[in-house]
Amino acid sequence: MLSNTNVIKLLGLMLVVAAVNILVLSPGFLGVQIGASALSTATGITLLVASAWILINGIYQFLFKKPVVIPVKEIRTHEEYVERLSQYRETKGIEEEISIGLEQMERMQKRKSTFFQVLKQRFNESELSFSKFASVALDVENLFYQNIRNILNILSVFDETEFDRVVNRKMSGLSIELSQKKAKVYNDYLTSMKNALTNNEEILVKLDRLLLEISSLDNVEPEDIEQLACMQELDALIKQTKYYKA
Fold first, then answer.
1. Neighbouring residues of 239: CB distance < 8 A, sequence distance ≥ 6
2. Which residues cross the membrane (predicted)?
């Protein structure tokens, strides 16, 4: 399926190439003319050849070249998660879920940045208190992206065409029982994705609460950190996930 994003990028490239050619070749601007002189001819021909090469390469890159697909288990960075999830942005039936997932990742990046800014303002990086708060924040971030990874695993086996048939009841020739089973499978897909998004929203809320608690602290000893309500909630969430992974 042709990506609207790539089409927009190609149109943008074409506009830039056209603008450069107009600027260089138009008599009202630089006025380079092929045949006027050796230098002018060389410049004009070089520009036209370069423009043709750029457009051909752009058409190939944006319309025909297959993107390099990194296996989900090898995705590591925020940018890679965003790029992969964005590929499903126009998948019918789950547009809202994909949009929420992308928005949550953007918020997580901002929360993480703000969190460590506040930590550096309140504690020295060599302090045990800083290490304890930072460790929990990084563990929670890993948990957050594990949920995104779960969504990507679901999407890798998600059949958009089949889902459309299920939603619009286009399963002619199938028994009612089999149609219901197929519908349940795709409902389970959606439920799993929504659960992952709900878990991530909970993580973001708990991080906000922890950030508020840290900002409100006058003084805290390292041994008191574990007693903070938000730290206990996040720690329980992390341990619960590790238990299920074991």
1. none
2. 7-30, 36-56
The CB density around residue 74, as the number of other CB atoms within 10 Å, is 7
Burial of 223 by CB count in 10 Å (0-12 exposed, 13-18 middle, 19+ buried)?
exposed
Q: How many CB atoms lie within 10 A of CB 30?
A: 13
Q: Which residue has the tokens 């409902």?
A: 187
Beta strand residue intervals within 175-239, DSSP E: none
The whole-angstrom separation of Cα 211 and Cα 226 is: 15
The number of distinct structural domains making up the chain is 2
Identify the helix (H) or strand (E) that includes residue 79.
Answer: helix 78-86
131 lies in the same domain as 234: yes
DSSP 63: I
Torsional sign, CA 196, 197, 198, 203 = positive
Q: Are residues 132 and 41 in the same domain?
A: no
Token pair for residue 129? 């208190």
Task: Based on the fold, state whether residues 109 and 206 are members of the same structural domain.
Answer: yes
Region 170-176: mean pLDDT is: 62
With H, G, I as helix, E, B as strand and everything else as coil, classify residue 34. Answer: strand
Report the chain's C-alpha Rg in angstroms.
Answer: 27
CA torsion through residues 174, 178, 181, 182, sign = negative
Question: How far apart are alpha carbons 52 and 159 in whole angstroms?
Answer: 38
27 in any annotated domain: yes
pLDDT value of residue 167: 58
Whether the predicted pLDDT of 121 surpasses 80: yes
Q: Report pTM.
A: 0.68
* Token digits of residue 125: 């990086």
